[in-house]
């Protein structure tokens, strides 16, 4: 887990303790994109992004994937590539 709460941007879900960043892990991403993973997310009311700065190769590889593309988020303020969970 990279971070839970950040106190510098009141518009961020992190500011309100409603987001968690996880270290990049292709296996975790594969699970979250799977039918089982998406079912788990829905059951628990969690959403996620595959997040990184514009131009990130790790994130870019998911852009053309028909399932993953809707979860890709290029964020110029991202501190690095990671999995962002909204809780």
Instruction: Give the strand order, joined by hyphens, for the main sheet.
Output: 1-4-2-3
> What spatial form do the alpha-carbon principal axes imply?
globular
Helix content: 25-40%
Q: How many β-strands, per DSSP?
A: 4
Brief overview:
This protein has 87 residues and is an alpha+beta fold.
Description:
The protein has 87 residues and is of the alpha+beta class. The chain has one domain. Helices cover 25% and strands 22% of the residues. The protein has three helices and four strands. The protein has a four-stranded mixed beta sheet. Helix 1 crosses helix 2. The protein is globular.
Which helices and strands occur, and which strands form pairs?
Layout: E1 19-23, H1 26-33, H2 35-44, E2 47-52, H3 57-60, E3 72-74, E4 82-86
Parallel strand pairs: 2-3
Antiparallel strand pairs: 1-4, 2-4
Attribute tags:
single chain, 87 residues, alpha+beta, four-stranded mixed beta sheet, 4 strands
């Amino acid at each position: 887990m990279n971070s839970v709460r950040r106190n510098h941007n009141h518009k961020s879900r992190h500011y309100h303790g409603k987001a968690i960043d996880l270290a990049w892990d292709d296996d975790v991403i594969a699970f979250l994109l799977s039918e089982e993973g998406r079912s788990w997310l829905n059951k628990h009311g969690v959403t996620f992004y595959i997040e990184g700065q514009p131009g990130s190769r790790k994130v870019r590889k998911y852009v053309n994937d028909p399932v993953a593309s809707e979860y890709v988020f290029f964020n110029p303020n991202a501190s690095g590539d990671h999995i962002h969970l909204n809780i």
